[in-house]
Specification:
Layout: E1 2-8, E2 11-14, E3 19-20, E4 28-34, H1 39-50, H2 53-60, H3 68-78, E5 86-90, H4 96-104, E6 110-115, E7 125-129, H5 135-146, H6 148-162, H7 167-180, E8 189-194, H8 204-225, E9 226-237, H9 242-252, E10 253-259, E11 270-278
Parallel strand pairs: 5-6, 5-8, 6-7, 8-9
Antiparallel strand pairs: 1-4, 2-3, 2-7, 9-11, 10-11
The site of S-adenosylmethionine has 22 residues, from helix 4 and strand 6.
Pfam family, one: FtsJ
InterPro entries: RNA_methyltr_RlmE (IPR050082), RNA_MeTrfase_FtsJ_dom (IPR002877), rRNA-MeTfrase_E (IPR015507), SAM-dependent_MTases_sf (IPR029063)
Family: Belongs to the class I-like SAM-binding methyltransferase superfamily. RNA methyltransferase RlmE family.
Length: about 290
Amino acid sequence: MSTRSLQIGLRFSRGIFCSYVGSSCWPLQTTIKRTKVTKASSKRWVQRQGSDMYAREAKEQGLRSRAAFKLLEIDQSHKIFKAGQTVIDLGFAPGSWTQVAVDHTRPNGRVLGIDILPAAPPKGAIAVQGDFMSPLVQAGIKEYLENPDEVEKRAVEGDQTKQQESGQESGSARTREKQSAPASAVDTVDVMLSDMLMNTSGNAFRDHATSMDLSNVALDFALDTLRPGGSFVCKFYAGGEDSLLERRLRSAFDRVKREKPAASRGESREQYFVATGKKKRRKVESVKGGGGRG
Ligand SMILES: C[S@@+](CC[C@H](N)C(=O)[O-])C[C@H]1O[C@@H](n2cnc3c(N)ncnc32)[C@H](O)[C@@H]1O
């Protein structure tokens, strides 16, 4: 195992831009452990991709990954997307779900991707880099949702002035942003997607626990920000506690289904919850058993 530190800041970017929100780069020092990718394992991965029809088709259609086909199948069955919707895509990188969301919400849709890793958003989307488990990152997303036009404008302005700013200046801006980050809920999101998962460790218990943490925190955020009637699609790594997550979903949404799309590899324990028809007045406090660890 090799350990590397990454400086994670809350940065909104559009296309090839990489802009700070105003001057708010909140440096959250995050240590990410990475398993060394050996030559043999990367060769096996390349071979598998080559013989995989979804990977081939994704390449042909200009989609950033084969994962797009999972969301396309889910949308075909559950009719999640409509023109003009606001969509949040948690764990968006490399961005094929975001591409599907942009395409299916035209015209006038708005798609925001969040990922802990740096990645340029697909055309038509905006992205923020940060650890979604951080309350500061969640506050930044809520700030965006409360006034997306303003934040996008500031992102462009911030990009123009960023190069002139010193580290010290962004430190004081950070304090201002922390103080002004809104805590209020904003019911403006139509669809919340979460495909978040780091590389699995091979330890089924640990991978399941990590996945439940991510899913519960994503659901808490969805309860705060989804409109009544909104939809939540969430990847999870199956295991003993997924029935608790399902129970929470059932208390907050009219319909909840487990899905294993054809493009999801048979040997993988990943599945998806598709929850549609968010009930009115279902907030975190009324839907017990949340992650709440953020
Ligand atoms: C399977 S990939 C998503 C693929 C994506 N849906 C697509 O179609 O291209 C999972 C992503 O979740 C991200 N992720 C995992 N944990 C995260 C966290 N705590 N905050 C933000 N992103 C996270 C990973 O960095 C990774 O890019």
